[in-house]
Amino acid sequence: MIHTFGDPASSKWILIQPVDEHDLELMQGETAQIRARCPNQSFSVLAIETDWFKDLAPWKAKSAFKGQPDFGDGAGAFLQSILNTIGSPSPDRRYILGGYSLAGLFALWAGYQTDAFDGIAAASPSVWYPGWIEYAEKTQCSVPLVYLSLGDKEERTRNPVMKTVGDNIRKQQELLMEQGVNTTLEWNPGNHFVDSDKRTAAGFAWIMENTAPIFDSAEFRINRKQRTQTMKPDRRQWKGEEQDDLGQIHGGLSAAGGRRIR
Questions:
Q1: Fewest CB atoms within 10 Å of the CB: 52, 112, 184, 251?
Q2: HSE of 91 in the Cβ direction (CA atoms, 13 Å)?
Q3: Is the Cβ–Cβ distance between 128 and 165 less than 8 Å?
């Protein structure tokens, strides 16, 4: 189910965020924080409800948390549904994929899978995920900008898997910089379970602040149009099997803030 905040039909920026029930409760406030930081940007937020442990996991892994299910491998199918929802690329529209926690890892992973997004906002991403750093070390990122953040207390945990998050986020930034990706790593006060809306809003805002001058230039618009016209048909497909379409963004999304679209 997709919840829209803003008017996608008239927005230059489409901010896409996988969410759970907790995230959804905070979306109005998160959108307001983005607007306060980027008052001159025209944007809408698409909050997409997910099967958290299945849709956002790039590959299967055992749970790192007692009493919670193991991770599935549904990220490929979920990413394809997002790309199908976006539809045909436009030289006048920008797309950012972002999220918090496991949704932040999913967004980061998607940035390695497709160049469909103009930036990735990975707020407190689950880079402790088994096998993630090994994957990032051998894979080229496909997007020009990546925002990373982490709480300064997140690595202070007894959980042997979770405690790697600090070293891994530092390594993640290092790998992106080596690949020539414009990236930043912001350290926030507190642990993982505070200010998720504020942290995610900061990521989306940073991408818009750091790309708007480039995207508004006449040279970029000409190059973007040429690239769009010569684009391969499968550009907005992830590196895997194609899945069913969820509907085109231009025809299926409502301008009413928070309205649910089935």
A1: 251
A2: 16
A3: yes
Domain 8-256: give its CATH architecture: 3-Layer(aba) Sandwich (3.40)
Token representation of residue 35: 């607007």
The predicted model scores a pTM of 0.83
- Assigned token pair, 145: 């900008």
Helix (H, G, I), strand (E, B) or coil at 2: strand
Q: Which residues does 85 contact at the CB level (< 8 Å), separation at least 6?
A: 2, 46, 245, 246, 247, 248, 249, 252
Question: 3-state class of 26 per DSSP?
Answer: coil
pLDDT in tens, 50-80: 999 999 999 999 998 888 899 999 999 999 9
Domain ranges of the chain: 8-256
DSSP secondary structure string for all residues of 40-100: T--EEEEEEE--HHHHT-SS-B--SSTTSPPB---HHHHHHHHHHHH-S--TT-EEEEEEE
